[in-house]
Amino acid sequence: MSAAAGASPLKIIEPGRGEYSPGVCNIGTAEIARRRMAGHVALAVGVAVGVVLVASGAPHWTRLILFLPVAGSASGYLQAWLHFCAAFGSRGVYNFGPVGTQQQVADREAKARDRARSARIGVAAVLIGAAVAVAAVLLPL
User: Fold this and answer.
1) What is the rounded CA–CA span in Å between residue 57 and residue 77?
2) Closest CA to 130 of 86, 46, 61, 68
3) If 0-12 CB within 10 Å is exposed, 13-18 middle and 19+ buried, where does residue 60 land?
């Protein structure tokens, strides 16, 4: 169906450009940078913990602790890459201004889309953390 036939044209929203899109984009550049930094910090913690565990000769099963920083890092990086904050989506808010300012999502359907996207990000971060932790346990180092 064409726009001339009465259908509204599809609006493409480029994430991170300052416009809220339910289940697609709920943070702007300042919040994206904050999520990316969280990913960097958690990754550095994970690498440091992994090095300490291997260097100290700790039992392989103790490497499961890597789940926490790796899942945190994955969460930060996923949120930055997707331009979507899982916590904001769960709470029904968004922010395209300075860090610390938020607007409420009013539409019930939009909130549902945001919660679903938040859940997918959480599940993906948990799976990534678990996969890396299990791989670390299985490494012969």
Assistant:
1) 30
2) 68
3) middle
* pLDDT tops 50 at residue 133: yes
Residue 123 domain-assigned (yes or no): yes
Q: Which of 17, 42, 21 is nearest to 29 (CA)?
A: 17
H helices present in the chain, as ranges: 29-55, 67-82, 86-91, 108-138
Q: How far is CA 121 from CA 47, 125, 128, 138, 140, in A?
A: 22, 6, 11, 26, 31
Domain count, the chain: 1
Of 83, 81, 63, give the one whose Cα is nearest residue 134.
Answer: 63
pLDDT in tens, 23-70: 999 999 999 999 999 999 999 999 999 999 999 999 999 999 999 999
Q: Contact, 68 vs 129, CB < 8 A?
A: yes
16 falls within a domain: no
Instruction: Enter the pTM of the model.
Output: 0.84
